[in-house]
Design a protein that fits this description.
Elements: E1 60-67, E2 71-78, E3 85-90, H1 94-97, H2 101-123, E4 145-153, H3 161-173, E5 182-186, H4 187-194, E6 201-206, E7 210-216, E8 219-225, H5 237-252, H6 261-269, H7 286-297, H8 312-315, H9 320-340, E9 348-351, H10 353-356, H11 360-371, E10 376-379, H12 383-397
Parallel strand pairs: 1-4, 4-5, 6-9, 9-10
Antiparallel strand pairs: 1-2, 2-3, 6-7, 7-8
Helix pairs in contact: 2-3, 4-12, 5-9, 9-11
Length: about 400
């Protein structure tokens, strides 16, 4: 499973694969797309429901963000045009990335604004003519404004939604963004909308965390897991990494079966976990070497870092221990889909690095869904969904 511990790159939603076609603001998120154009309107260049009048000024900018537990991706675009700037930064899930997560998010927003303003300055026709450049010192025309911000944030579910909304609003206000122009939702809504299957369906997300949700009219009406790395998140990158390390610890401690995962983890950590010879053991005990290395490389209070080991079972999928880990994750996904939609009538959106990135888990899940005759799409990123929401919010707020 390649790079299953990192967020996937932005791509348009895949074609429907099989089966029949199918916060600041709370409540149903945004205005529903209509008809067969739902998927096309969630791309980076998606257009709002209504175009601004000809000659409208000032240029109204929107910011959209897909904020995961491992990484954050933001884009900036005119309300009625193509994306002009992108920025990436650390993850911002309070539960898995620690208390400084939202401060990291502010810096990523600052960066995408800087890049967007620089792009506007470069595109300004009067920038090279003395006395004609109307741009301010930050590179943005004095009348340009951020009309709306829509962020799909991992961990902004019901348990902490109010806290996240307040914290993000306070922080972005420092950048001159009115909190009333900010829509905060969880990354589940944006990932579902990015799938382009309409307003009803299932989302199965396995990235840093893992959760499945049934949506009706864009409302989450049923949910499984998403309880965090300590209580659940089965099949997530953190879960896979944790199970991998547990198996390796049992192997070298003699209380579990021998597994090729031990060599894989040793290579990743530059340790000889078998003999402690090449490289020489720092402690004289491979078990203590493993403990020491993990203490150094896994920040306290930030279990998202366990995701770096998530890809290892897929590398040695023929190993019985690795295979068992993979089969538990695959079986859990398929069982969850069946539990949330027993008739098999709803389209499924697969999202998150584990299910949207290449690897044996995605391959087996897709094969299982096809065997059941279920329609599904893959959403490699929630950015198209966030951009759709930002443009809808801007359309509501602009005079």
């Amino acid at each position: 499973m390649n790079a299953s511990d990192v967020e996937p790159s932005a791509e348009p939603a895949a074609e429907l694969s099989t089966g029949p076609a199918a916060e600041p603001s709370t409540g149903p998120v945004g205005r529903p797309p209509t008809g067969d154009d739902a998927a096309s309107r969630t791309g980076h260049d998606a257009m709002p429901d209504a175009m601004p009048p000809a000659g409208t000024s000032p240029p109204s900018l929107v910011i959209a963000g897909d904020i995961g537990g491992t990484s954050s991706r933001l884009i900036l675009a005119p309300w009625d045009g193509a994306v002009i700037a992108e920025a990436e930064g650390p993850g911002a899930n309070l539960r898995s990335s620690g208390a400084d997560a939202l401060d990291n998010l502010v810096e990523t927003v600052r960066e995408v604004l800087f890049r967007g303003r620089r792009a506007l300055r470069q595109d300004s026709p009067g920038r090279d003519s003395p006395g004609q450049d109307s741009l301010g010192p930050d590179g943005l025309g004095p009348d340009a404004e951020v009309a709306a911000v829509a962020l799909g944030i991992s961990g902004a579910g019901p348990a902490r939604a109010g806290e996240v909304r307040r914290a993000v609003g306070e922080r972005l206000a420092r950048l001159g963004i009115d909190p009333a122009r900010i829509l905060i939702t969880d990354d589940l809504h944006t990932a579902f909308l990015a799938g382009g299957v309409g307003d009803d369906g299932l989302l199965v997300l396995a990235g840093t965390g893992a959760v499945a949700v049934r949506f009706h009219d864009r409302e989450a009406v049923a949910r499984r897991d998403g309880m965090g790395w300590l209580l659940g998140d089965i099949g997530s990158a953190v879960w896979l990494g944790r199970r991998t390390l547990e198996a390796v610890a049992a192997d070298i401690d003699g209380r579990g079966p021998r597994t090729l995962l031990t060599e894989e983890v040793g290579e990743l950590l530059a340790l000889d976990l078998r003999e402690g010879l090449l490289p020489p053991s720092a402690t004289g005990d491979p078990r203590q070497d493993l403990i020491r290395a993990l203490d150094e490389q896994l920040p306290a209070g930030a279990p998202a870092a366990l995701g770096r080991f998530a890809r290892l079972p897929g590398r040695v999928a023929g190993d019985p221990v690795a295979r068992e880990i993979l089969e538990v994750a695959i079986g859990h996904v398929l069982e969850t889909v069946q539990a949330l939609d027993p008739p098999g009538e709803l389209p499924v959106v697969l999202a998150g690095s584990v299910l949207a990135g290449p690897g044996p888990i995605r391959e087996a899940v897709e094969a299982g869904l096809r065997a059941e005759g279920r329609a599904f799409r893959t959403a490699p990123t929630g950015l198209p969904g966030a951009l759709l929401l930002a443009r809808e919010l801007a359309g509501d707020l602009l005079p």
